[in-house]
Write a structure and sequence with these properties.
Number of strands of chain B: 18
Low-confidence stretches of chain A: 1-12
Strand content of chain A: 5-15%
Helix content of chain A: 25-40%
Radius of gyration of chain A: 21 Å
Number of helices of chain B: 13
Largest interface: A-B, 41 and 40 residues
Structural class of chain B: alpha/beta
Oligomer: heterodimer
Shape of chain A: globular
Largest sheet of chain B: 8 strands, mixed
Strand content of chain B: 15-25%
Distance between the termini of chain B: 21 Å
Radius of gyration of chain B: 21 Å
Structural class of chain A: alpha/beta
Mean pLDDT of chain B: 94
Largest sheet of chain A: 5 strands, parallel
Strand order of the largest sheet of chain A: 7-6-5-8-9
Chain lengths: 333, 454
């Protein structure tokens, strides 16, 4: 008797939750990851950024889009470059910028993440730019802020660094035009890299023909192939015929442990030298999210060489962050 | 007190009885089970009549892993709140792991816990003692004295022993007295991640616990069992590869039993969704192929028991980034429903569902208690670790621990309505949880009505 009564209960569980970075009209209210954003939306962000690039060349480098808004830079993990570019971007949009060195203040006094957010919300924040050492922390914050408050992920653990991903896309589009014919190789410590993950989601969504990840087995998870990329453990094979080479930073603490024996040996196997770069297409561009470790993952001759677009990346980064802030600020939950 | 339970469909997996029966209870003992209206039942004067029509009358459930959070974590769960949750779920016997604060490694602590729980008279509590002092994996506890104080076995809860020599000696020592060792197989070093290794953990950037963490630990345990002769109960298996190893070990004849949690039986790592800390669990939720293997293993008897892995966690400790959030979920109130759900998914009978939460776990308890008393080098001992006769079954002369539930009623898991002090469960309706079959109406413990829904 019971068996029949339970028939309707067989249905599998359904994840019905909406992507938390979009409102019910599919508009961007937070930027937490490049995953789950449509091609249209990604292209819209890049197009908006293109309009902001020229702002930096004006005599008065400001537009009034965020006048009267407060942007809180919340860096639970140290950063100079990303925090500075966010600050410049917000100021060029005429916002008030408040930089909080959380790592040295409230968190070290034992205040919980959500308490910090509640206190700062009470100071009438409009946008939180968050960097945190734990994957997923910005999702937690986004779930606990008022509907008019926007959260931008400036890097969470190994999970995502979406504005870096977007500025990489902007750079590739700027130099290569289209994604559909491109082969992009991401080289280095993919396991710990939030940049790699954000790049991969954006590239696969934008229709990039081939995305490769290259590195030793300790730094490239085999499950990566399920994200739509090809895994290579040999640098020469991995960059052969590529249009774009994205080098990842190898953090000091990974160098002398169970992951890698030494930085010298790593450079021999996976350091990008002019000779190895010659295996890529002759017009290939070389990118790096910075900070660069010369002689560890990349040779100085490549950093300073004609194929390097590392400095334009930084410039475009400001425009892309302006675009993201102006877009999320214009959408309500 | 005399109780008459009438007109119910009595299902007892031990005797495989499934029929309309009336049950007479005198004092704490079942005195008669007979067809409704049978002559033999006449002349019984009941102080209390329970009408069980439309309901199933089953043995009280036996949960082999439920944390009561006392002593030490009273803000997360009190003995009383958690035991009330147990009886509301039809659970009349439970085993609680030693990971309290202080750890259950002193006989006095066990005495106190048994005494406090016994006074409440809600669910029989069988504590596991710590296998090593402070669960640190270094020095052995006074197992003999702990057993006298009432420990049913010895385990490490979530704290794997990294030093294999200590584990070997602990198993040797436990085997000396015939104690059962309860271990969750997980390699200490490989078990440091926060989600199961796989595509989801890689995508979300969460550190992974590989299947090898479980299989390496299982192989170690089996090798040590062969050398030491220890009996082992394996707690909360999580992977298909682990199941395969256990199947081999059982075929080899090793004295091993094992259980799976309601979480691993029904959920996968996909339920983590967007970093939902309610799905932060140990062992971590694995992939669909693992879940399927666990369901089949429970069906085939490779896995003996389904446990709730009840672990109430306080709100502040779940409102943290995923990796920092405390693992654990409330589960005891879902145990019956999720057993029924599993059986329905595989076209099994209600009897099959009840077997893995009554008869099978009770068998492990009885064996554990019996084994150490008879094989003790010091002869027969009096101990608090006794398991009452008839726990996990319905028979004349057995103790009257009974769960009466409506199998056709359906409910949704609304956290605020849970009786447990822990309100976090990955089966919550707003996490996409589906309807739960089966609602407990009455619970009888030792001949006393300890829960009535209305």
């Amino acid at each position: 008797m019971c068996k029949d009564a339970l028939n309707f209960l067989w249905s599998p569980r359904v994840q019905h939750k909406r992507n938390p970075q979009l409102n019910k009209n599919g508009e961007l209210i937070h930027l937490l990851s490049t995953e789950g954003l449509s091609r249209t939306l990604l292209t819209h962000i890049l197009d908006t950024a293109a309009n902001f690039v020229s702002v930096s060349d004006r005599e008065v480098k400001k537009v009034p889009l965020l006048r009267g808004k407060s942007v809180f830079n919340l860096f639970f993990e140290n950063s100079t470059r990303t925090r500075t570019t966010f600050e410049i971007a917000a100021k060029r949009l005429s916002a008030d910028v408040i930089n909080l060195d959380i790592a040295r203040s409230s968190a070290s006094k034992g205040e919980s993440l959500l308490d910090t957010i509640a206190i700062l919300s009470a100071m009438a924040a409009d946008i939180f730019v968050v960097r945190h050492a734990e994957s997923g922390a910005p999702y937690l914050i986004a779930q606990h802020t008022a509907p008019h408050v926007h959260v931008i992920n400036a890097g969470d653990g190994r999970h995502a660094h979406p504005t870096q991903g977007l500025l990489d896309m902007y750079t590739i589009r700027h130099f290569k035009g289209e994604f559909s014919n491109l082969c992009v190789a991401i080289v280095g410590d993919v396991l710990h890299s939030r940049v790699a993950r954000s790049d991969i989601h954006a590239l696969t969504t934008l229709g990039c023909a081939e995305v490769r990840v290259v590195g030793p087995k300790t730094l490239v998870p085999t499950d990566m192939s399920q994200m739509g990329v090809k895994v290579f453990n040999n640098l020469e094979e991995g960059i052969k015929g590529c249009d774009v080479v994205i080098m990842l930073r190898l953090q000091n603490e990974r160098m002398n442990g169970a992951l890698l024996p030494s930085s010298q040996e790593y450079f021999k196997g996976y350091g990008l030298t002019p000779q190895k770069l010659a295996l890529a297409k002759s017009d290939a561009i070389v990118m790096h999210p910075g900070p660069i470790n010369r002689g560890v993952e990349i040779d100085s001759a490549v950093v300073d060489g004609p194929q390097s677009v590392i400095l334009p990346q930084v410039t475009f980064g400001i425009a892309v962050r302006m675009a993201v802030m102006s877009i999320v600020a214009g959408n309500d939950a | 007190m005399n109780i008459l339970i009438k007109n119910g469909r009595v299902i007892d997996p031990c005797s495989t009885l499934d029929a309309l029966r009336d049950i007479q209870i005198t004092d704490s003992i079942i005195t008669k089970i007979g067809s409704p209206g049978a002559e033999s039942l006449e002349g019984f004067k009941a102080d209390l009549e329970i009408d069980a029509s439309q309901c199933i009358v089953a043995p009280g459930l036996v949960d082999l892993t439920a944390r009561l959070r006392e002593p030490g974590y009273e803000h997360e769960g009190m003995l009383e709140s958690e035991l009330r949750a147990c009886v509301a779920a039809g659970v009349t016997s439970l085993v609680c792991p030693p990971d309290t604060d202080p750890v259950l490694d002193e006989p006095g602590l066990v005495d106190m816990l048994k005494f406090r729980a016994g006074k409440m008279n809600l669910t029989r509590v069988h504590p596991l003692g710590a296998l090593t002092k402070g669960l640190k994996g270094e020095a052995l506890t006074e197992m003999f004295e702990l057993a006298q104080a009432g420990c049913i076995g010895f385990g490490q809860a979530e704290h794997s022993i990294s030093n294999t020599q200590v584990l070997q000696r602990a198993m040797q020592y436990a085997a000396t007295y015939g104690f059962c060792v309860w271990l969750r197989p997980q390699d200490y070093h490989l078990g440091q991640g926060v989600a199961a290794s796989g595509a989801l953990a890689t995508r979300l950037g969460l550190s992974g616990v590989s299947v090898a963490a479980e299989t390496i630990a299982l192989n170690t345990i089996f090798a040590l069992m062969r050398g030491t002769g220890a009996r082992v109960h394996l707690c909360r298996i999580s992977s298909a590869a682990g199941v395969a190893l256990i199947k081999n070990a059982k075929e080899e004849g090793l004295p091993v039993s094992c259980d799976v949690s309601i979480n691993s039986l029904h959920l996968t790592d996909q339920d983590i969704g967007f970093f939902d800390s309610r799905a932060r669990l140990t062992p971590p939720l694995r992939q669909e192929s693992d879940r399927k293997a666990l369901q089949m293993a429970l069906l085939e008897g490779v896995i003996d028991v389904l446990v709730s892995d009840h672990d109430p966690v306080e709100g502040d400790l779940k409102s943290l980034p995923f990796a920092q959030a405390k693992p654990g979920a409330s589960g005891v109130e879902l145990l019956l429903s999720l057993a029924l759900k599993w059986s329905a998914q595989h076209q099994l009978s209600v009897m099959d569902a009840l077997k893995v939460v009554t008869h099978n776990p009770a068998k492990i308890l009885h064996e554990a208690a019996l084994n150490w008393r008879t094989s003790s080098v010091l002869g027969t001992l009096s101990s608090n670790a006794q398991v009452a006769q008839g726990v996990g079954e319905l028979r004349v002369g057995g103790v009257a621990d009974i769960c009466i539930f409506d199998p056709n009623a359906v409910w949704m898991v609304k956290p605020e309505e849970l009786k447990s002090q822990g309100k976090f469960t990955p089966f919550a309706f707003d996490m996409g949880g589906t309807a739960m079959p089966g609602v407990v109406k009455f619970t009888v413990l030792g001949g006393e009505l300890v829960y009535s829904r209305d």
